[in-house]
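hiii, so i know i said id send this last week but things got crazy w the move. better late than never?? heres the sequnce for the chain we talked about at the cafe, plus the structure i predicted for it. fair warning i was half asleep when i ran it
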Amino acid sequence: MRLDREHLDQRDKYFKTNLINAITGFKSANLVGTVSPSGQTNLAVISSVVHVGAMPPLNAMVIRPHSTPRHSLENLIATGFYTLNHIHRDMVASAHQTSARYPREQSEFAATGLDEYWLEGFAAPFVGQSRIRLGMRYREHQTLAINGTVLVIGEVVLVDVPDDCVADTGHLDLERAGTVAVNGLDGYHTTRQLARMAYAKPGQDAVRQ
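okay and structure toks below
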């Protein structure tokens, strides 16, 4: 199938949405944990987390336009903190259910059976079932003029990872942790590492390590 923009625009909304969300390939699958200033917790699945920089350690994520209430966005801006929690094989169904539109007063933790996990001194809830968890400090956000989506940038201030999933080099064994990837809006996938390549230099083969 080959579609130019004209032919793509002639397709129905659901076809276009599914196709465009999937053609970028596999993406990270995370749950964003937040809490409102009044103490109401919120949990939302997100597939747009990307690395921005290592020094300082920054990640970004894209949130849909704020034309309707976005509880996660509102909470993290108000409190300054949020969490990113990997989705694992044994929690896919519950994690995906957080994408349902629950009212503000309904916590997705309680609605989906996922556990709130609090670390002393950190002002946002983690997911108890997650094995790789990041504590994030909100740094800035930009509303993109082209479509109204919101780009949120946060700084990693806490890392909670099983000891047996971290190599001496800092590499993570995501397969051991059971982390899954997502394609499109609803396709969850397990992974298998093919190789870890050497640092690439001109004129030198990228020898497998």
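btw Helices lie at 5-10, 13-22, 71-79, 92-97, 108-112, 174-177. thought thatd interest u
miss u guys!!
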